[in-house]
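Progress against Task 2.4 (sequence-to-structure conversion) is shown through the following example record, which the project officer requested during the mid-term review.
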Amino acid sequence: MCLRDYTINLVLRKRVVEETLQAFFHTILLHRTFPTLSFKDGAVSYTSYIGVEDVDCKNFDLTYVKVASEGLHERIAGHITIFSKTLRDESGNEPNKAAKGTIILAFVTNRKGSWVVGSEPAAWEKWIFNIEVNPSTSDDDYRSKIASQIKGEILYILDCINTSESFLPELGSSQSECDTVIDFSLPEVSPYRFNINYFLGPPQNKSLGVRRF
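Structure tokens generated for the chain above:
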């Protein structure tokens, strides 16, 4: 399996970090989620369509589309909220102090393990977001400037997803065969399995693959 990773670097103000990451994560998951899957006679099919909804951002002028699944939203919202709060706390109230951190959305396959080591998730795609939180400065145009920047990054994400080099694991002919790559625990939707990790400090660009600086 070939790991593809994509890196986005952003300098943001405290108040926009959470909404920015929500827009990025939901855009990616919109293209990494199936409706309910059905298996019959050795074939897989969809039993419904994915519901979507528009989200209007409050801190900048941007509307993005997400999968209409509260369960899927909760899976990512908690991680993003904690990461964003940690960055805000790290920067504190000091006028010239910046905080840096990285949050990673990784799509994984649950490898079948042995009785010794158990199962082990292996990533096939990673989205790495290096965030620097800078102290707020007076700028009347910031709302429109950051919206333009985020729109550009979303277009970059869509380009990566739609490239011919993009890799998606093959689906099996039964639920048990798909269970290593698909999460069947959510009602109405079946996303590719993913996990979210984050840490504070400067970025650690050690992975091989597609990077953007």
